[in-house]
Amino acid sequence: MSHVPIRDVDLYYQSEGEGVPILFIHGGVAGPEPRFHALHADGAPRLTTPEAALAVLAREARFVSYHRRGHGLSGVSPGAYRIEDLAADAGALLDHLDVQQAVVIGHSLGGMVALQLALDAPNRVARLCLASTGAGLLSSEDRFGRGNLAHFYANVSSDVALSKTAGLRSAFEARREGLRRTSERAPAGMAEWLASLHDDELCAMYGALLRDCEAFLEVDLSARLAELRMPVAVIHGGADRWVPIAHGRHLHESIAHATWLELPDAGHANLLDRADGLLAVARFVRGDGAAGARAA
């Protein structure tokens, strides 16, 4: 577990095991919740369920995961950035680890970063696994449905716009009480931790959230999907309420050689911590394809 200066920010990363390099790019957005999870982790501070589950791949490969800028234990970007910057961060981390080429697995918004990396630096991506993701999850052209992302998209779009016209502090003041509240499913201790934060600290985390979301707003990589030449697997859960399965089907249909795997009763967060999802990823990493694929 280490920090490394990557471009204009310090990134936290973990590298475990030996063998074929695997780079996992997590989903989610920056802000207070992923920071809490990282700071209060029992053991390795993993931000997402898929990241924790996929770490088992370190038994037969070199499994590398990291916290994207603004997330968890990584530093907060000093200014705005684009999805191309997030992909460049991933490439720079591979450089630091002296990894020329890796199997890249991207989940949710991390899948869009993985796509951007594969398009910008195809020589760095040996195989590409896209899980619970799409080509344009926060694009205003809602072609495939947003599911639970619809309310989030509406809020973050207006907040980003407000932060640009009235300033970050004004946008924060409008959301402050909501940021300090936690849901019934929030992890133990989070409410107390939020209450202990000064407004300036919480505002900085909120700014990280907005900058992170802004990197994905209006991005749609659909027009470039045909450029991909490396082996690609698209894995999606039929019960995904955050990223409707139509997004995954679009990826599969737009990448002619892509392998498709649908897990009918899998949701968004639990897709890759199931035995069948893990088995499919492990086989794809080894070059055996994604087993049990269902036709789109």
Give structural notes:
This protein folds into two domains: 2-147 and 219-286, Alpha/Beta hydrolase fold, catalytic domain (Rossmann fold), CATH 3.40.50.1820; 149-214, no CATH class. The chain has helices at residues 32-39, 49-54, 83-96, 109-120, 149-165, 168-180, 190-196, 199-214, 245-254, 275-286; strands spanning 2-6, 9-16, 21-25, 62-66, 102-107, 125-131, 232-237, 259-263. It has 296 residues and is an alpha/beta fold. An eight-stranded mixed beta sheet has the order 1-2-4-3-5-6-7-8, with helices on both faces. Strand 1 (2-6) and strand 2 (9-16) form a beta hairpin.
Oligomer: single chain
- What is the highest CATH level, the class of the largest domain? Alpha Beta
Describe the biggest sheet?
Answer: 8 strands, mixed
Portion of residues within helices: 25-40%
CATH architecture of the largest domain: 3-Layer(aba) Sandwich
Tertiary shape = globular
**Total domain count:** 2
CATH topology of the largest domain: Rossmann fold
Strand element count: 8
Relevant CATH superfamily of the largest domain: Alpha/Beta hydrolase fold, catalytic domain
The portion of residues forming beta strands comes to 15-25%
What's the tally of helices? Answer: 10
The structure class reads alpha/beta
Element pattern in H and E: EEEHHEHEHEHHHHEHEH
Low-confidence stretches: 291-296
Q: Mean of residue pLDDT?
A: 88
Précis, in short:
This protein is α/β, with parallel strands linked by helices and 296 residues long. It has helices at residues 32-39, 49-54, 83-96, 109-120, 149-165, 168-180, 190-196, 199-214, 245-254, 275-286; strands spanning 2-6, 9-16, 21-25, 62-66, 102-107, 125-131, 232-237, 259-263. Helix 3 (83-96) packs across helix 4 (109-120).
